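RECORD TYPE: inverse folding
INPUT: structure tokens
STRUCTURE:
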């Protein structure tokens, strides 16, 4: 495999990009390999983040690295991460430099030579200082962003969190002024001398798909599946499908 869907590591740098502007290149977001796959349009960042389901939060805790998969949502130029108030990693992230990644695997790229095999992907890497949200109104906005990210239309259809439920959760805000986006698409890049080898080459698409909704067995019979739930089955499909 000759590609990696992540930004190259670098030294800690400032968040230099103004909200809404293009993504500025910093030492941490500069791509050292396959720089032609990098994207600096902020809309490309939004597209990768908005299409994801789970992000991975990376931080240093108790002297060692920790990577935590967690639910998230986005509002403008802020990522909201959500989890249990007993989660030590989320609590430790407050006020600390963190790295948040979202990756989509779109296809296996099968080349004629082993070295040229690859993966079609879209990835975003966000660097920033996380902070725990304490204001109740902002916490509700963060929870709404996470809920709507996963199931658009769900927030208006369900009961709002109680004070007790809010006490059991933690919400983190992470600005994404400093971020990198890297995307690979297309067929394999074989060497000219390998093009006539009797080996199948091409791309095997990979996509996230939702199945048919399964009602809670304890729910009253005859209740229709709401439109916002039914819409999930049309939300994702195979790339190019």
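DESIGNED SEQUENCE:
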């Amino acid at each position: 495999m000759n590609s990696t869907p992540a930004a190259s590591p670098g030294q800690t740098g400032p968040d230099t990009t103004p909200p809404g502007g293009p993504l500025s290149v910093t030492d941490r977001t500069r791509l050292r390999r396959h720089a032609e796959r990098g994207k600096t349009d902020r809309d490309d960042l939004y597209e990768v983040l908005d299409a994801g389901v789970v992000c991975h939060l990376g931080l240093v805790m108790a002297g060692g690295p920790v990577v935590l998969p967690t639910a998230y949502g986005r509002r403008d130029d802020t990522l909201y991460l959500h989890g249990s108030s007993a989660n030590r990693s989320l609590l430790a992230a407050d006020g600390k430099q963190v790295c948040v990644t979202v990756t989509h695997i779109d296809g296996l790229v099968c080349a004629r030579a082993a070295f040229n095999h690859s993966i079609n992907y879209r990835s975003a890497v966000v660097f920033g200082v996380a902070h725990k949200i304490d204001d109740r109104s902002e916490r509700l906005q963060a929870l709404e962003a996470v809920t709507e990210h996963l199931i658009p239309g769900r927030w208006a259809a369900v009961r709002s969190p109680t004070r007790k439920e809010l006490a059991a959760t933690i919400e983190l805000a992470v600005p994404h002024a400093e971020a990198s986006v890297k995307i690979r698409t297309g067929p394999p890049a074989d060497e000219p001398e390998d093009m006539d080898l009797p080996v199948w080459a091409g791309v095997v698409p990979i996509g996230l798909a939702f199945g048919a909704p399964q009602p809670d067995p304890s729910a009253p019979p005859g209740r229709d599946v709401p439109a916002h739930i039914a819409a999930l089955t049309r939300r994702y499909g195979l790339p190019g499908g």
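NOTES: Residues 20 and 76 are 8 Å apart (CA to CA).
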